Amino acid sequence: MKKNVITADRIARIIISAALVVAYFLGYVS
Predict the structure, then answer these.
(1) pLDDT greater at residue 23 or residue 6
(2) What local confidence, expressed as pLDDT, does residue 1 receive?
(3) What DSSP designation does 24 have?
(4) Residue 30 has what DSSP assignment?
(5) What is the torsional sign of CA 16, 18, 21, 22?
(6) What is the four-CA torsion angle of 9, 11, 16, 22, rounded to 10 degrees?
(7) What is d(CA 6, CA 3) in angstroms, rounded to the nearest whole number?
(8) What's the farthest any 2 CA atoms get from each other in the chain?
(9) Complete DSSP assignment for 4-15
(10) DSSP code of 17?
(11) What confidence tens digit (pLDDT) does each residue in 4-20 have?
(12) Terminus-to-terminus CA distance in the chain, angstroms?
């Protein structure tokens, strides 16, 4: 169970990081 929680947390952080990068990239292009 704990491993699943850690994995989900990592995935969530990766998704958030990717979203921030995309938002920054779009803002830079605009």
Answers:
(1) 23
(2) 62
(3) H
(4) -
(5) negative
(6) 170
(7) 5
(8) 43
(9) HHHHHHHHHHHH
(10) H
(11) 777 989 999 999 999 99
(12) 43
Q: What is the DSSP secondary structure assignment for residue 1, as one 8-state letter?
A: -
Residue carrying the six token digits 């699943």 = 4
- CA 22 to centroid of chain Cα atoms: 10
Can you tell me which residue has the tokens 């929680």?
A: 5
Hey, what amino acid is at 22?
Answer: V
Token look-up 């292009």 returns: 29
Given a cut of 80, is residue 25 above it in pLDDT? yes
Tokens of 4: 């699943």
